[in-house]
Amino acid sequence: MAVKAIENVNVSISPHIRKPISTRRIMLDVCIAITPACIAGIIAFGWRAAVILLISVLSCVATEAVFELITKKPLTIGDFSAVVTGLILGCNLPSTIPFWMPALGGVFAILIVKMIFGGLGQNFMNPALAARCFLLISFAGLMTRFPETIHTLFGADPVTTATPLAVLRDGGTVNIREMLLDLHNGCIGEASAICVLIGFVYLLVRRVITPLIPCVYIGSTVVFVVLLQLITGHAADLNLTFVIVQMCGGGLLLGACFMANDYVTSPLSRTGQLIYGLVLGLLTSLFRILGSSSEGVSYAIIIGNCVVPLIDRVTIPRPFGREKEKKIRKEGQA
Amino acid sequence: MLHTFKRGIHPHDGKELSRDEPIRDILPGETLIYPMSQHIGAPAVPCVNIGDHVLIGTKIAEPGSFVSCPIHSSVSGEVVSIGPAMTLKGEPETCITIKNDNAYEVLPSGVEGRDVSSMDSASILAAIRDAGIVGLGGAGFPMHVKLGVKDPTTIDYLIVNGSECEPYLTSDYRLMLEESDKLMRGVSYLLRLFPKAKALIGIENNKPDCIEKLSGMVGEGIEVCPLLAKYPQGGERMLIYALTGRKLNVSMLPAQVGCVVVNVASVIAATEALEDGRPLTRKVMTITGDGVNQPSNVRAYIGDSYRHVLEESGGFKGTPGKVISGGPMMGISMFTLDIPVVKTSASILAFEKDPVAQKDMSPCIRCGACMRACPEGLIPQHLALLSDRNKFEEFEKCGGMECIECGCCAFVCPAKRPLVQSMRYGRRETGALQRARKAAAAEKGGKN
Question: E strands along B18-156, which residues?
Fold first, then answer.
């Protein structure tokens, strides 16, 4: 029989159908999810917050585009991952910093942390957080100067306030209801706990993330903080307010919901994710209780990022039908 | 209660195109080609000569070894050539070509209307072997080997696979509805081989009419088990786990966990072989997809060309972007229609546009979707990376050989990475390493 090829037909390996999902769609979902937190930040801290977010995003996207143009690589800014990095970096900056800082941060995040290591999927640290830590170390004074007054939802006039964790550290009191529902001082993305949680729920509903890492991270931070308070003899300070502020104050919610579970820099398996969440919780609580700053989320996450390859190595799940075997037998080996 | 397995995917099933089309008989073309490898195991050996006159049911090739199958002519006519011809695998192999005389004269088997209840196990197995029946679910493992377990009393379950989990395919669905009598008789015949076994007929819950109809017909020791419609429910290991909770890995056979799994179409073929001595010469296929004119289910002649089967069932609508033999998840994409229908052919699926080729691959972002979809509990992302880097020792250590190439990982991948391709490469190379290791060990053992 003469073999005649079918015209214009593609031949490829199975499967021949794909789920309608793409990297760009995932990144867009993250952008959408972080928008409420950004809006809350802009309401609380004013126009400067909006400008910082914008500069941060533009800097990230431009850095990626320029790098790819110079190295003659295909342009990948269409996947929106640089936008995500820019938004997260912006959310991690105080609104008082000079405008060149988000620009510098964006260049550092994309050029040094992402592109030099091979671009999307190859960075060993969360680029936005690495950039924040870089800025924090280089310009400690500027990075820890929060605005003296902020706008809140319930009060008409700007109120004078420090960040909740700093208030607590200095012996002040924090209103729980305001802590949960209203805006409070801190980095741009930390203004509203509820807005961060709205974004988190959106990501869960869209099945972009699984809840394991954020839940373990927040839960273990609270547990370790309480334990450390007891060990260091500060049991008297422990009350519900303390726990709520530790949970919702500072960058913990933002970090747990948007940064700790960054795909590229978190473990794959469930066991690995559990260990990773515990490591992050332990580090954060150590930094918060024993460190000199009342924060600690950024450092905890980027240190956690560095141990992810090790965690992945020891937590490879057992394949179906081999759960009980210690080691996969090499077929054909005597 | 719905039975199911862990992980897996829910693709669009597309079965509505052809599910309500009754199976239609179609006649074959002028020349029929029979490849000698239509099953797993040794190729069959031709036992006719050029110029021989054959009838429907004439054995034209003998099994090449124990794990092999005979092949029968599906038409009456003359053997015109024995030699290499193109097959679905994409490479030529030894085939027997028969010119159809359009008389459709049947070779009498001499045992029409035989009383199966008086047959013993050995003669049941022999009848199935002589009819050339293979696993019609796709793999094509010789059925007599599958059924001929060493100690039949160790078998607790005879699992009848009616899950048809591949999207678009409806041939098993139609068979279950239209030939339910034959199916149920076949199940009770096969149960005679395993004195302690119970038969479980697994059907996905997207075929409620099959579940209802067969449930009303069950005899003693037979149970219809609804399965959650999820891909790859029809995979042997997934099916056994869903129905019995027993697990097996790549190094094990179902018999080791007391199970034998057969496809519904194979059971119906066995019924015909046992009752009338009729060999396997025809195959029900689904002609479907948005690239064909008339989605339908047809009973094609084994040996007929895909081109002729397609022409008989309405042809393509325009120029399709992709043509697949089998389902969209595990089927083989075809570059030509001038190849013969074989025992394991399940469908002609034509897509107007190829939904895969237009997608650009991007870097892995480690989202873990592949891991959450993998029914074998592997990390396809990691294994594909090891395979791409030729790290086969580690590929094996991380369970790469457990992969069943079901395609769930590639289906869900947002970066559109060719994970199955990498896995297939890794498995082939690792398999070669394993065989080399085995040979080296055997040689060492021989010297001692």
Answer: 23-25, 31-35, 45-46, 53-54, 59-62, 71-72, 77-86, 92-100
Q: Which fold has domain B121-276?
A: Rossmann fold (3.40.50)
Cα distances (Å, whole numbers) of residue A203 to A32, A42, A114, A199, A267: 9, 22, 23, 6, 18
CA-to-CA distance for A21 and B412, rounded, in angstroms? 7
Q: How far is it, in rounded angstroms, from Cα B226 to Cα A185?
A: 57
Best B330, B366, B378, B382 residue to mutate vs chain A (most A CBs within 10 Å): B366
Q: How far apart (Å, rounded) are the C-alpha atoms in residues A124 and B314? A: 55
Q: Report DSSP state, residue B105.
A: P
Q: Which residues pair with B84 in a beta bridge?
A: B94
Put simply, whether the predicted model's pTM sits higher than 0.80 gets the answer: yes
Q: Which amino acid is at A29?
A: D
- Chain B residue closest to A320 (CA)? B376
Q: How far is CA A213 from CA A121, A264, B429, in A?
A: 19, 13, 36
C-alpha A282/C-alpha A273 separation (Å) is 14
For tokens 């018999």, the residue is B255
Q: Cα(B292)–Cα(A237) distance, rounded to whole angstroms?
A: 74
Displacement of CA B232 from its chain's centroid (Å)? 13
State residue A167 phi and psi, 5-degree precision.
-55, -50
Where in chain A are the domains? Answer: 23-314
Sequence spans of domains, chain B: 121-276, 369-447
| Cα-based distances in Å from B117 to B123, B201, B275 | 11, 21, 10
Asked if the ipTM is above 0.90, the reply is no
Considering Cα of B120, then B123, then B129, then B131, what sign does the dihedral take?
negative
Q: Write the residue in A5, A328, A332 that is nearest to B397 by C-beta.
A: A328
Taking CA atoms, A156 is separated from A44, A153, A161, A310, B17, in Å, by 12, 7, 15, 51, 62
By Cβ distance, the residue of A79, A122, A316 closest to B398 is A316
**Sign, CA torsion A290/A291/A296/A299:** negative
The CATH class given to the A23-314 domain equals mainly alpha
Residue B208 Cα, gap to closest chain A Cα (Å) = 25
Four-residue CA torsion sign, B437, B439, B444, B448: positive
Q: Please state the rounded mean pLDDT for residues B115-139.
A: 87
Residue of A nearest to B97 (CA): A1
Q: Which is more confidently placed, A247 or A98?
A: A98
Contact A60, A85 (CB under 8 A): yes
> Scanning every residue of chain A, which has its alpha carbon at the shortest distance from the alpha carbon of B436?
A332
Query: In sequence order, which residues have a C-beta less than 8 Å from that of residue B121 and are 6 or more positions away?
Result: B152, B192, B193
Tell me the per-residue pLDDT of A217-256, one tens digit each, with 9 for 90 and over: 999 998 998 888 888 877 777 777 788 888 887 788 889 9
Helix axes A127-138, A100-107, angle to 10 degrees: 130
- Specify the DSSP element, H or E, that contains A215: helix A212-231
Lowest mean pLDDT of A181-190, A196-205, B24-33, B76-85, name the range.
Answer: A181-190
Q: What are phi and psi of B79, to 5 degrees?
A: -70, 120
In the three-class reduction of DSSP (H, G, I as helix; E, B as strand; rest coil), residue A94 is classed as coil
Closest CA in chain A for residue B257: A321
Q: Do residues B187 and B198 make contact, with C-beta atoms less than 8 angstroms apart?
A: no
- Candidates B31, B357, B411; nearest CB to A1: B31
Which residue, A150, A186, A143, A181, is CA-closest to A168? A186
Q: Which of B241, B339, B411 sits opposite A18 (nearest CB)?
A: B411
| pLDDT tens, residue by residue, B173-231 | 999 999 999 999 999 999 988 988 899 999 999 999 989 898 888 888 899 999 999 98
Joined together, the tokens standing for residue B110 give: 């001499």
DSSP string, B171-232: HHHHHHHHTHHHHHHHHHHHHTT-TT-EEEEEEETT-HHHHHHHHTT--TTEEEEEE---BT
CB contact B320 to A (< 8 Å) = yes
